[in-house]
Design a protein that fits this description.
305 residues; alpha/beta; five-stranded parallel sheet; 26% strand; binds NADP nicotinamide-adenine-dinucleotide phosphate
């Protein structure tokens, strides 16, 4: 039986692991489908404190993992396929292997949200993408659309503007949600255009198995037009990765895990940290902070405090 299992290996999970390992709790981290979490999908991170010139996301996560390992954290590069948290000891199934533990930290993060079109699903990986840094290379000198008006959308657009011929940001309102500094940067780049008050009705061409463009509707005028595009990047936000815990751990209406008194969930001995609990801040540094708190809370729980 394990004393502590941490599910997830983004900034929350790995910071929890560093603290828990240093407290001799012998944590096991189940890394999940996207080891390192969402920072693995970004390029340079400029707001992680301590790096005035920024740091590469993959490097930051590799360093965090090394740091956690140095203090004795064990890792399983696998996915959790089931959990049983309503009876003790808790049981965590990892691709067929059943593990038992007295304490769990959930740090499964959040994933990119999709619009929900059938054509979007069919063309995912065939011109539709949720990650410019992963797929931007395929669209050198091509026409791409970025859907959304938040920081993610502009970050993707700015990144793509160095590769693609043109980048058109399609946003459903006439004002961006993104931070002012990101807006200024995007507005100053010549090959980034904006289609305001616009939503995607359909993506062509599922029959051909590749993206040729999209039907775009102006939500104010109702007018629909076809826009040529070779690639479409969805950047409309994220949803928490909590389907494993439904019916066991208390969540809000959007599926974020509710925490009280620090990182405690509705189940004593189960703690949660990072984007899986956070519909508001969603920053790597806030996730890391909550990961630290979860490890300290877990330690106190194990001591019976
Ligand atoms: P977000 O801030 O929630 O923005 C999502 C955007 O997508 C919004 O503009 C929203 O439109 C639009 N949208 C949502 N659902 C849609 C739909 N069904 N159809 C069309 N458009 C839709 O999400 P995010 O951009 O992923 O950012 C999440 C958090 O991470 C934020 O706190 C952000 O500051 C942070 N972040 C920071 C950085 C950085 O600092 N470098 C980079 C990326 C993200 P409305 O505006 O109309 O709601």
């Amino acid at each position: 039986m394990r004393s502590l299992i941490i599910i997830g290996s983004g900034p929350a999970g790995l910071t929890a692991a560093i603290y828990a390992a240093r407290a001799q709790l012998k944590p096991l981290v189940i890394e999940g489908m996207e080891p390192g979490g969402q920072l693995m999908l970004t390029t340079v991170i400029e707001n992680w404190p301590g790096y005035p010139a920024g740091i590469d996301g993959t490097k930051l996560m590799a360093d965090m993992k090394e740091q956690a390992a140095r203090f004795g954290t064990e890792f399983k590069p696998k996915e959790v396929t089931g959990v049983s948290l309503l009876t003790k000891p808790f049981s965590i199934t990892v691709e067929g292997e059943k593990l038992e533990t007295g304490c769990v930290i959930i740090a499964t993060g959040a994933s990119a949200q999709l619009i929900g079109l059938e054509s979007e699903k069919k063309l995912m990986g065939r011109g539709v993408s949720v990650c410019a840094t992963c797929d931007g290379f395929f669209f050198r000198k091509k026409e791409v659309l970025v859907i959304g008006g938040g920081d993610t959308a502009l970050e993707e657009a700015i990144f793509l503007s160095n590769l693609a011929a043109t980048v058109t940001v399609v946003h459903r309102r006439d004002q961006l949600r993104a931070s002012k500094i990101m807006q200024q940067q995007a507005f100053s780049i010549k090959n980034i255009e904006f289609l305001w008050d616009s939503v995607i009705e359909d993506i062509h061409d599922a029959a051909k198995g590749t993206v040729t463009g999209a039907l775009i509707r102006n939500v104010k005028t109702g007018e629909v037009h076809f826009k040529n595009a070779d690639g479409i990047f969805m950047a409309i936000g994220h949803k928490p990765n909590t389907s494993l815990f439904k019916g066991q751990v208390e969540m809000d209406e959007k599926g974020y895990i509710i925490t009280r008194n620090g990182t405690a969930t509705s189940i004593p001995g189960v703690f949660a940290a990072g984007d899986v609990t956070d519909p508001v801040y969603k920053q790597a540094v806030t996730s890391a902070g909550r990961g630290c708190m979860a490890a300290l809370d877990a330690e106190r729980y194990m001591q019976g405090l």
